[in-house]
Amino acid sequence: MKPFTSALLFSMVLGLLGPAAHAQPPGTQGAGQPIDPIILPPVTVTAQKEPTDVQRLPVSVTVVPIDWLQLGASVSDAGIHSPNTYFSEFTARKLTNPRFRGIGASPANPSITTFMDGVPMLNANASNIELMDVEQVEFVRGPQSALFGRNTLAGLINVASARPSLTRWSGQLAVPVGNYATREVRAGASGPLNERLAFGASIGHSRRDGFTENQLTSNDLDYREATSGKAQLLWTPSARWETRVIFSAERARDGDYALSDLGGLRDSRYLTARDFEGNTDRDILSTTLLTRREGSRLAVSTTTGFVRWKTQDVTDLDYTPLPLVRRDNTEEDSQFTQEVRVASAAAAPVKVGGNVSLAWQAGGFLFSQTYEQLAVNSYSPFVLSPFIDFGVSQTTPDADLDDFGVSLYGQGTFTVHERLDLTAGARFDRERKEALLTTSYSPAIAPTSTLDTDETFSTVSPQFAAAYRLRPTQTLYASAARGFKAGGFNPASPTGSEAYGEEYAWHAEGGLKSVALGGRMRFGAAAFWIDWQDLQLNLPNAQSPGQFYIANVGSASSRGVEFEATARAHANVDLFGSFGYTRARFGNGTASEGTDVSDNSIPNTPDYTATFGAHLSRALTSAATVYGHGEMVFYGAFKYDDRNLAEQDAYSLANFRAGIRGRYLFAEGWIRNAFDTAYVPVAFAFPLAQSGFLGESGRPRTFGITGGVRF
Length: 711
Hints:
By secondary structure, the protein is mainly β. It has a 22-stranded antiparallel barrel. Strands 3-8-9-6-7 form a 5-stranded mixed sheet, with no helix packed on it.
């Protein structure tokens, strides 16, 4: 219990230091209406498509304002505030897999879809990006298939960009520097071009040395360097019409994977030995068009998205000092999405009876996605066979995957006597997948194998909820929903495992949301039960080292509880905390690659998660403010694999930052993993590793300062 005692004392100390800044400045609310500075402002989310007070939603939602995050933070950095949330994160930017309540999957077929301003990232390789010009991040736990369809079986992550200002120009230039030769620069500005047109743009460049040393060369392996940018245009031709165009891009040129034998990492962190040093690159381009017309009775909106990304990994695939096998893996993905939605106007629900009203929404969605992968494994002589005394290149996979889908959805909420909300919704999804999969050798030591196949999937996803307001600030709710993940095809897999089927889960949840202490405290509690069939699991491919594939392994269940709270301990002093417990197990008779895994723990699911912290500031003069933010994060023990052969013990991390803001200048000091905790957040079975597992050490202690100007 010592970590939790430390966290409590830490929060109490921060609470005594002085007033704190919150995401919304004190003394204002919404359109500038004065409020009591010790009352928490309301939190509005868009994760259910319509802007709604988070306290009224019969859904578990964690909202992370950008003020809680360090400059340059990513989506996974925000996830520490969400209970029962864990990111399996490699050094390669593309390999970051979120997991809610024990549910997660492959990046190619995620259980949790990330939405960037309403546009779904159909492949998770492009979802963990820097949060540039972002207002808040919303973590919605529980199936969202009735509104959002495929691949939201566990929930979704909604990233909402900050709107360009129509009233005044503002901007800043920030230059962070730190250990590991961290050097960054970020700049941005936003403001009106005229009374109805606003523009915003940001650009950033970052670089640091690697954490892991190759003992054969003394070089850093996992260095990082990236340039990213974002531009927005907001047009409001009338009070009822609004159009936004958002363009973003990233160019990352990073070092190699820091993978090494798990047993060796336990003894010596950040050390590996290999004969070849590769690289991991990623390029992302995306364009989003948002339109909305708010009428007196109807609201009509459209969301159009184009996303294109490309990655290339060149690595020593045996991860040893011997020149055995290298891999050159290139992936490309292009997606187009279009949604049209109609809803009852927020201020004009349909009157059904004297004390009954109906708020509704309905829409259609279509998408088209093209994915290509070309991976070449180059084997040295005698590696494949003692009789093959020459080098061999194996192309596996050479894959082309095409996916097209359409959906229709609707949802209605009946409100009775302004206290009881009864919600029902459903969505019909249909998609067709085509695959052309080829494996070949050069020289041709074996015949070329080709699979040309297709499959059509369709399903209906229902969702039901009831919410009762015990008082205006207290809501009791219960919900039930069925979520699903589409089936599909693996680019590379063992023979006979090229296709995998759909996964379904029923999810029940009950909870309480409340505002207490005269508006100074907001908290929520929830209990959940999940039962799913034909669970899709991401498994290492024994026939192709370093390649994973998806397989249906059987049934599973998850049970747990969650608690969240935010309190304003003093005028502008915010304390926050969350706790989650999950028990996720495979069902009886479940087998993975022929091995019975019944009642085993589902991998990469900590027994518990917890975060405690504070956000604070104190005015020194009318033009200068000092501030601080700190958090302690706890993860329970978890297994790395479905057979439960290796695990990570419970660990905790501490992050702090403090600074001073003037009218035009600011400076900040920061430290992450302040106590230099040793942990291995991700590992997987690998036959050439001495321990049988490869893993990567978690980020060490990093620290630095940030200085800049703003206007």
